[in-house]
Amino acid sequence: MHYDPRKRDHGLPHDPFLSLVVPRPIGWISTVGKDGVVNLAPYSYFAAVCSNPAHVVFGSAGRKDSMRNAEETGEFVVNLATWTLREAMNESSANFGPHESEPMLTGLAMAASINVGAPRVAQAPAALECRYVSTTALTNEAGEAVPHSIILGRVVGVYIEDAILREGQVDLRGLGVLSRLGYMEYGVLDTIFTMARPAQRPPAQR
Ligand SMILES: Cc1cc2nc3c(=O)[nH]c(=O)nc-3n(C[C@H](O)[C@H](O)[C@H](O)COP(=O)(O)O)c2cc1C
Questions:
Q1: How far is the CA of 188 from the CAs of 26, 92, 94, 185, 192, in angstroms?
Q2: Is there a domain that residue 1 lies in?
């Protein structure tokens, strides 16, 4: 089959698009509102876009609390969501009001970050402490506004639970790192393999 997503003419019961961009890492984002309320929500429009300097992005469908808090306070934290945290991660996506604290409502313990004011999820084995850089309001190819934004942050602190460091490397085996697939489906990272990159040719031979 082939379809045009602009016309949504796939003829299927559910839009297949997101089931084809998989697995998507889940940026589980903690922020603090101007009023001091801690906010937590999962974002699977999430990616690292460069590592030196380290930057991440998340995409917000509309102006949600995470985006607003990141813009207003200049900070957000990305927590690594794992199998044991799956229910809490899912619950934190519920539509809480801006003055309600998701961690409090889900009974999830938070821990202080080092380089930003927003706390991290205490049980998450890793967290990226970010300074807000910019918001890009998306448009289509004709320059017309669409109700989505991309929020860019620079990573200024990295928390790694000591127990997942083995021989100098992060070892995620056994943690069940979660990813988002299409529909209501999720993936769990359960197979890791190593492959060396091909020998790099000098620029003149490329
Ligand atoms: C696994 C998962 C991934 C999600 N990814 C996104 C996303 O990338 N962008 C988005 O706008 N909403 C996403 N959502 C929905 C938000 O988590 C939800 O709207 C939440 O209430 C937003 O919270 P906030 O207003 O506190 O930021 C996702 C939900 C789940 C369960």
A1: 11, 19, 22, 10, 11
A2: no
pLDDT in tens, 167-182: 999 999 999 999 999 9
Residue-averaged pLDDT of the chain: 96
Residue 89 CA to residue 116 CA, distance in Å, equals: 21
Q: Is residue 11, in this structure, part of any structural domain at all?
A: no
Does residue 6 have a pLDDT over 90? yes
How far apart are the CA of 200 and the centre of ligand 1, in A? 40
Token pair recorded at residue 40: 């937590």
**Atom 16 of ligand 1: nearest residue by CA position:** 93
Taking the CA of residue 178 as reference, the ligand 1 atom at the shortest distance is 1
Q: Is 204's pLDDT higher than 80?
A: no
32 within a domain of the structure (yes/no)? yes
**Residue 72: domain span:** 17-205
**CB 31 less than 6 A from any atom of ligand 1:** no
Domains held by the chain: number = 1
Strands 46-51 and 54-61 turn out to be antiparallel
CATH of the domain at 80: 2.30.110.10
Lowest mean pLDDT among 72-81, 175-184, 197-206: 197-206
The pLDDT-based confidence of 102 (bands split at 50, 70, 90) is: confident
Q: Is residue 98 part of a domain?
A: yes
